[in-house]
Design a protein that fits this description.
alpha/beta, five-stranded mixed β-sheet, 10 strands, globular, binds 5'-O-[(R)-(carboxyoxy)(hydroxy)phosphoryl]adenosine, binds zinc ion
């Protein structure tokens, strides 16, 4: 029996969770409602907000799990990628708990964490599978052959899918995060009203959302600006979302062909999108999407990944540093 305390602070959610052998005993996510006014996450503001609540969130996760630090066998923390200042807060907290309690510390790659959300009970999925990881910070197709890592098959050349949806929503005058607001507005629109590009020119399994973003900008400009375009906002939203979803679905189909996988796991915040889920269900694969709370950032997924990794040696644990970009998943 292994009880893992997971800590995740890579972006704007302060998260802690207690996971026992793959079962979630508690998962606390404190979302920082302080970035909306800026239309996006402000790194320094995020780091400060993590400092304010990190200890409280960890205490809350333990309390909700009816556990004490004495019950914890392993501490797991997100090492990167993410915002440097934000990551440092979680890593400092994790190091402190591990050092004070003489516990092993496991450094987890955030993207591996998203994949590992699918390993959690009560419906754990076993590799091999193809992973589509679509969030505000990342868009990747990954080959998952084992529980302890993944291979990147394709990645976005510019914006992440969620970021593209957020920016599109902003152009249409919607608030942050834009993905859910855009999906609601798109429900009243015609996805074929505007023919936005799906990056067919990008070879292989990489993704690109710069083109569709520019096309939306030009379409709004051609209609006379955001105000003038308002009567067409639902059509613009539906067509924009359609182009993003089509690109993701076609690349995923290509990746299924290339790898021969017949199981697809979709994770990251954009996996909450109903249009994407319905489109992916048409592909030639079994599709598994973790429940919504496990698709967005959380610490249960970090703990889940740690159950399949080697903890750091004590000297390495104290020296643990963060990384902002890239991925060093094993
Ligand atoms: O995984 P996540 O919570 O945080 C990151 O690690 O980025 O993903 C957040 C992203 C945001 O871009 C948000 O707009 C998008 O997920 N998102 C959605 C929906 N719900 C959240 N995008 C499209 N449709 C949704 N229903
Ligand atoms: Zn994430």
């Amino acid at each position: 029996m292994t009880v893992v305390l997971g800590i995740e602070t890579s972006c704007d959610d302060t998260c802690a969770a207690v996971v026992e052998d793959g079962w979630i005993r508690s998962s606390v996510v404190a979302s920082q409602g302080v970035h909306d006014a800026f239309g996006g996450v402000v790194p320094e503001v995020a780091a400060r907000a993590h400092v304010e609540v990190c200890d409280l969130v960890i205490a809350d996760a333990l309390a909700r799990a009816d556990a004490r630090l004495d019950d914890v066998d392993l501490v797991a923390v997100t090492q990167g990628p993410g915002l440097t200042g934000a990551l440092l807060v979680g890593v400092a907290a994790a190091k402190s708990v591990a050092a004070a309690r003489d516990l092993p510390l496991c450094a987890v790659d955030h993207l591996h964490g998203h994949v590992a959300a699918s390993f959690l009970e009560p419906e754990p999925v076993d590799p091999p599978f193809l992973g589509l990881l679509v969030s505000g910070g990342h868009s990747l197709l990954v080959d998952v052959d084992d529980h302890d890592g993944f291979e990147v098959l394709g990645a976005t050349l510019d914006d992440a899918a969620g970021e593209a949806l957020d920016k599109g929503a902003r152009m249409l005058g919607l608030g942050y995060p834009g993905g859910p607001a855009l999906e609601r507005l798109a429900g009243d629109g015609d996805p074929e009203a505007f023919a936005f590009p799906t990056a067919e020119g990008v070879a292989g399994l990489d993704l690109s959302f710069a083109g569709v973003k520019t096309s939306l900008l030009y379409a709004i400009r051609d209609l006379g600006g955001e105000e003038a375009a308002r009567p067409r906002a639902a059509d613009l939203a539906a067509s924009y979302q359609h182009a993003v979803v089509e690109q993701l679905a076609r690349r995923t189909a290509r990746a299924l062909d290339a790898t021969g996988h017949d199981l697809l796991v979709v994770c990251g915040g954009v996996a909450a999108n109903g249009v994407l889920r319905r489109r992916l269900a048409e592909l030639d694969a079994d599709v598994f999407v973790p429940e919504p709370a496990l698709c967005t950032d959380n610490a249960a997924m970090i703990a889940a990944a740690a159950l399949h990794l080697e903890p750091l040696a004590p000297a390495e644990a104290l020296a643990l540093d963060v990384y902002a970009t890239g991925s060093v998943a094993p």
